[in-house]
Every structure is written in C-alpha cells, then in structure tokens.
Amino acid sequence: MGSQQQTILVTGGAGFIGTHTVLQLLNDGFRVSIIDNLHNSVQESILRVKELVGPKLSQNLDFHLGDLRNKDDLEKLFSKTKFDAVIHFAGLKAVGESVEHPIRYYDNNLIGSINLYQTMAKYNCKKLVFSSSSTVYGQPEKIPCVEDFHLNAMNPYGRTKLFLEEIARDIYAADNDWKIILLRYFNPVGAHESGKLGEDPKGIPNNLMPYIQQVAVGRLPELNVYGYDYPTPDGSAIRDYIHVMDLADGHIAALCKLLNADDDDVMGCVAYNLGTGRGTSVLEMVAAFEKASGKKIPIKLCPRRPGDATEVYASTKKAEKELEWKAKYGIEEMCRDQWKWASQNPWGYQSKPLKDI
Predict the structure, then answer these.
(1) Mean pLDDT of 312-326
(2) To pair with 315 at 20 to 30 A between CA atoms, which of 62, 77, 183, 191?
(3) Is 137 a catalytic residue?
C-alpha cells in the first residue's frame, strides 16, 4: 500500500474520523502530518493513536497545532514538507448549530478550505480527498442516493459542503492536473475495536450515537428523539449509519486511487458515497445499543428539527466498483464498539469531568 516516501497531510486529524483514518494510514506505512486547531478535539486522541500503532510507526506522525484560516500556519507546513496528497477533514459539522450561526460555518469551512486549496496549488500538491457529506443531497426525491442526483443542501452546514464540492469542481475545470475525490459520508458511528479511540464531542452532542452513549454512562438523563411522526414504520427518521473504521478504510481506498493514478490519467473531480446502503431508524439504533450495552436508554420524543430529512441512505455501487471498497460492519458491531469506547472512557478523552468554572 503506502510507502515511507509518501507523506499525507490530514487536516482535522485529531477529530473523530480523522484519528481513525490516521491510524489506518500509519498502519499502511504512510507518513502523516496532522494540522488541527483542536476546536472540537483534543491532543490526547493523537497520543492514543501513537499508542495503538506502537513506537516504530508513531515516528511517522507529526502534529501541528494550527488553523486553516491562518495562511501562515499552512505556509509553515508546506514550506517544510513535500506532501503527496491531502485528506481534508477540518471543519465544523453540526446541522443545528449551523442554522443558528451560519456566518461561523461559512467563515470556518469555506475560508479555511480556500486557503488550503491555494496553498496546495502554490506548492504543486494537487491530490485531494475531501470530506463531504450526504447532506449535499438535502431531502432526496428518491432513495437510495446516487452520486449524480441533483444536489440541494437544506442547511448552512450542508451548503458549506456543497459549495466546497463546487469549488473543487471549478478548480479541476481550470487546471486538469488536479485529482480530487469527494467522499460523501452518511452517518459515521462506532469506535476503534480497542475502545481507545472514539467520538468525544465538546458540549452536548449533536449526533445520535454520542448522545445515546452519554445517556448510557449517566452523563445525560435521557435521549431526545427529534421527530416521531415521520412517515416511516416507527415514526422516527431513517439514516444510513456507517462504522468509522469502514469509513477510514474508504479514505485509504480513495487515497490509493489518487496515488496510483498516472500523471496523465484524467481522473477529474469524482464523488463517492460512503455508507452501508441500508437505512436504520433512530429507534432501531436505540434498541441495538440497548442490546449491546445492557443499559436502558430513556427517551424523550421531541418535535422534528428544521432541515432534517425523513429518510436518507446511500447507493454504494460506485464506490464498490471504482474504489473496490465496501462497508464490512453492521449496526451490531457499531453499537458493540461504541459501547466499548463509552464504557472505558465515560468522559471521553478526559479521565474525569472538568470542574464547572
């Protein structure tokens, strides 16, 4: 797979999906540099990655505290190291928060990414794997979602992902030396099987699984289920949940496609869905987690959230065919691994709750 000579820059590499992908990159023999501003992550996660890969491979990992909105941070990085490709995770990612604070999302996600693309162009690093999202489909007219569907994001977070996809398409149209893969994730859940890496959002979680997990370990009293009157079998919304390790492997597959392409290969700017191709309702997921953890999860039924779609799941045929990648894990494994992480790390990467200031 990778070789010692190939160095990958991972933006947002201290985050949930970032850490799991960095782990797999190191295991595959790549050198990795992370840039992260630790807005929604902690450095402890990087130490855990090093522990999991062992002393020899951890020498191939560099961490840089920096912000993509600060061009000097990028300049410092690119002037010192020649990168073979970039995996771009860095960005804010909560739908509800983006509706309340749209400018914060446009500032962080768009300006940071534009700076990154400019710096990549300047240093002739034109291979990019971009972290996009199934939110670019909005409320799809039919399901499963296929990559060539009309795109119609329904909230500011989704629009930042859609705009960044459009920018990537325009960059490629203007300069065919670029090779760009846009990965549209569905709903990443689960954790590394060791229980040492997992999702650790700051504040009240915005996504279902970390929320369920915090109820299970007693940090939150009950789970708010948003929407119980959807036209679905149990009234709750249906999503395509994907194990974070499957997602990490999807990034490796995309990266290898970029790195193995000849310079004169016209790859262009291509989008792939990363999901399981199956929908699971919120209440089904709660039941699966209760089974995995042996804990009862008290729920509170709440009105639907603005901007949430009824049912979204992926068609994964294109990724299976062109990236030779397919999700391996089902919701049982997702819940099992999530619970292992939660029970070993009830307060995430902290050993105990931070005192209220």
Answers:
(1) 98
(2) 191
(3) no
